[in-house]
Amino acid sequence: MALGQNRKILQIVGYQNSGKTTLLERLIACATKQGVRVATIKHHGHGGVPQNDQTKDSTRHAEAGARITAVEGAGMLRLSIQQERWKLDDIVALYNIFPIDWLLIEGYKNEHYPKVVLLRTEADEILLQQLSNIVCVIYWHVQPTTDYPAFSIDETAQYLDFLMTEMRKD
User: Among candidates 57, 54, 141, which has minimal Cα distance to 104?
Assistant: First the structure.
């Protein structure tokens, strides 16, 4: 993909400990095995500037095969660029200079990009009414009542195949 061209973007969202990073690792590994150049952005949504020990998720993204990783929290983008506040669209724009095919985003629930929603508990289903651009749902225990494609967390091959197909669509 040429510099500055649009690339496929997908968000992975859910509450803390819902499996976002593990899902991203699996998707990154699957995509890179097929020659897809992947980059990631992680939202440190637990308050404050992400410390070096709090960048472990972006390190996991890199170990899975992501070419570029970043973590953002409280205005600190760990590519080590400091400004008052970072909007997701501004970070995405930075990535336009890199030759990547897919940009996978962990977090930023309320942004407008296509997203996978992880539901660990039945109470988490409220996200399905609050969020936009849902591509599919991955659930832990009880299958939600929804019109979106839904996969059990244990159906790894099925949801990875679905997501790879979705990301390859024009």
Answer: 57
Query: Nearest Cα to 57, choosing from 39, 44, 74, 76?
Result: 44
Tens digits of residue pLDDT in 65-81: 988 888 888 888 876 46
Q: Please state the pTM of the whole predicted model.
A: 0.89
Q: Return d(Cα 51, Cα 32) in angstroms, integer.
A: 28
C-alpha–C-alpha distance, residues 91 and 59, integer Å: 18
For the chain, domains (ranges, CATH) are 8-168 (3.40.50.300)
Structure tokens at 73: 């929290």
Dist. CA 82–CA 22, nearest whole Å? 28
Q: 114, 128 in Cβ contact below 8 A?
A: no
41 SS3 class: strand
